[in-house]
Amino acid sequence: MARLTEKIEARGHPNVRANHKTTFEFTKDDFVTVKGDCILAVKASKAAADLSLSFKRLASSELARIVFIIEVDGIIELAVGRGSRSLTFTDETAIVARKSNYVCPKTVMINSDKAAKDFTRVFIEHLRNPDAKVNITMIIES
Predict the structure, then answer these.
(1) Other beta carbons within 10 Å of 5
(2) CA–CA distance, 111 with 59 (Å, rounded to integer)
(3) Regarding beta strands 94-98 and 23-27, do their DSSP bridges make them parallel or antiparallel, or are they unpaired?
(4) pLDDT digits (tens, 9 = 90+) for 26-81
């Protein structure tokens, strides 16, 4: 079994709402409007296109298990999902995880057990702090 890790750094933002029912997202943009209700953090150090070739290859399997470990201010939340041979990893601004099996250039994980609305509200409050450093670790096993 192969196992790889990707690390991403991002920042919080006062407009983080995290009410989306089917996705969560990290963006390289330095802002989010209140309409961006799936976005958890801004100023991400990587987008889908920036992930390593090894990670992309492993994630392009239906058997790939992907875990997001998201930490802010010592609070840790997890989301678990799957890879897909349909993933393209071509978006240069964002990373999206989805509860469904829908795929677009931003998508890096499908069949997620969480969407933005499923993260605890205490966790989301910390993500609203623009000074908060958000550490994202993606672990893939295939």
Answers:
(1) 12
(2) 13
(3) antiparallel
(4) 999 999 998 999 999 999 999 999 999 999 999 999 999 999 999 999 999 999 99
Tokens at 48, concatenated: 């889908």
- Identify whether the C-beta of residue 85 lies closer than 8 Å to the C-beta of residue 57: no
pTM flag (> 0.70): yes
Query: In whole angstroms, how far apart are CA 55 and each of 15, 76, 79, 137?
Result: 31, 22, 17, 12
Residue 1 has pLDDT above 90, yes or no: no
35: helix, strand or coil: coil
CATH code reported for the domain at 3-141: 2.60.120.630
Question: E strands, the chain, where?
Answer: 3-11, 23-27, 39-41, 65-72, 75-82, 94-98, 107-109, 133-141
Instruction: Read off the tokens for 103.
Output: 């795929």
pLDDT of residue 25 exceeding 90: yes
Distance of CA 52 to the CA centre of its chain: 15
Sequence ranges of the domains in the chain? 3-141
Question: How far is residue 80 CA from its own chain's centroid?
Answer: 11
